[in-house]
Specification:
Length: about 325
C-alpha cells in the first residue's frame, strides 16, 4: 500500500524503514525543509538517527498534499504537542476511511485528551489506530528485534496495521483496548522522568525498582478508572514500555530526569536533551486526570512539583518516601 509518514524525526524515520522493507510505497513529510534536504541528500537522519541508512525507495517532501495523495494509511509520527495542528492541516487531504496510525505518546495539556481522540476530532471520517510498545527508534532502525501492539476499536483496522508493519524483526500484536494502550504509553514517560532523577541523584537498583513498580501501580489505577484493562497494563504498552523508557540510554525522558537529578534546572535539562521530552507535556494532564477520576498518583504529583513548582528533587524524593504508611494493594483482604 501507499503509506504517508507525517514526521521525519527518529521514530518517523525508523518506521518508514520498517514499512519500506515490507515493500510498501512510503513517503515521509516534514515541516522542516532542512530536515527533508538532509534526508534526501544523505539518506540518513543525521541529527536524530545517525548511522541508519534510509532505503532509496522512500520519498521525502515538505508538500503535505503531495505526501498524502493516494495514501491508504497515514502514520502520525510528530511529537505529541503538534499532533492536533498537524492533523488539522492533514485533514484537508485525507480521504474517507483512510487508516491513521498514531505513534506519538502523550496527553494534550489543556484538554486532557489522548492522541487518538485528537485525531478522531480532526479527521472524523478516518479510521484510527495506535501503535505502541517498548520500541526505541535507534534499535528499530537497526533491525534489532522489537515487539509492539496495534490497538483499534475496530478489529479489522488493527489487523491491517499489524500486517503492514509486521516482519521477522518487528512483531506486532493486536488489541481493542485503545485507552489502556494510550495511557500506558503516555504515563510511562512521566515515571521515566522520575526514574532518571533517581539515577541522577546516585540512588541504586532498589530505589529504581521500587519507583518503577509503584509507577505501574499508579498507571494501573488510572487505566482501570478510565475504562481500560489490567491486561494491557501488564503488556507491551504498559510494563514493557515502562521498563525500556526508565532504563535505556536512548530514552529522552529518562535522560532529562537524570539531568534534573544532577541539579540542572528544568530549562537546562530540556535544552541539553535537544528533543521533545513528551513526559513534561503529559505530566500536568496526568495529574489532572488522576484528580478527575479520584485516583491517587503520588509519583506523578512529585514529578509535577519538581517540574513546575520549583521543588528540590532530593527533598521531593524524601517526602515521597515519608508519606503515611499504607497497604500495598487496597483491595486485598486479611
Amino acid at each position: 500500500m501507499r503509506v504517508c509518514v507525517l514526521g521525519a524525526g527518529s521514530w518517523g524515520t525508523a518506521l518508514s524503514i520498517v514499512l519500506a522493507n515490507n515493500d510498501h510505497e512510503v513517503v515521509v513529510w516534514s515541516i522542516d525543509p532542512e530536515e527533508i534536504l538532509m534526508l534526501k541528500d544523505f539518506r540518513e537522519q543525521r541529527d536524530k538517527l545517525p548511522g541508519v541508512i534510509v532505503p532509496g525507495t522512500i520519498e521525502f517532501t515538505t508538500d503535505m498534499e503531495m505526501a498524502l495523495d493516494g495514501a491508504s494509511m497515514v502514520v502520525c509520527a510528530v511529537p505529541s504537542p503538534f499532533v492536533r495542528s498537524t492533523m488539522h492541516e492533514a485533514s484537508k487531504y485525507i480521504q474517507n476511511d483512510t487508516i491513521i496510525v498514531d505513534v506519538a505518546k502523550g496527553i494534550e495539556d489543556d484538554t486532557y485528551k489522548t492522541m487518538t481522540e485528537i485525531i478522531s476530532e480532526e479527521c472524523p471520517n478516518a479510521r484510527v489506530a495506535i501503535l505502541s510498545g517498548p520500541s526505541h527508534a535507534e534499535e528499530v532502525g537497526r533491525k534489532i528485534p522489537t515487539t509492539v501492539v496495534a490497538g483499534s476499536k475496530d478489529k479489522a483496522v488493527a489487523e491491517v496495521v499489524q500486517d503492514a508493519f509486521m516482519n521477522e524483526v518487528f512483531r506486532v500484536y493486536t488489541s481493542p483496548d485503545v485507552i489502556g494502550i494510550e495511557l500506558g504509553g503516555s504515563l510511562k514517560n512521566v515515571i521515566a522522568l522520575a526514574a532518571g532523577a533517581i539515577d541522577g541523584l546516585g540512588f541504586g537498583d532498589n530505589t529504581k525498582a521500587a519507583l518503577m513498580t509503584r509507577g505501574i501501580s499508579e498507571i494501573s489505577r488510572l487505566v482501570i478508572a478510565m475504562g481500560g484493562h489490567i491486561e494491557t497494563v501488564a503488556g507491551l504498552s504498559g510494563i514493557g514500555d515502562l521498563i525500556v523508557t526508565c532504563t535505556s540510554k536512548h530514552s529522552r525522558n529518562r535522560n532529562a530526569g537524570f539531568l534534573l537529578g544532577q541539579g540542572k534546572s528544568y530549562q537546562e535539562a530540556m535544552d541539553e536533551v535537544k528533543m521533545v521530552v513528551e513526559g513534561v507535556y503529559s505530566a500536568k494532564a496526568a495529574l489532572a486526570l488522576g484528580k478527575k477520576h479520584g485516583v491517587s498518583m503520588p509519583i506523578v504529583e512529585t514529578v509535577n512539583a519538581v517540574l513546575f513548582d520549583g521543588a528540590d528533587v532530593k527533598d521531593a524524593t524524601k517526602q515521597l518516601l515519608l508519606r503515611d504508611r499504607t497497604m500495598e494493594a487496597d483491595n486485598l483482604q486479611w
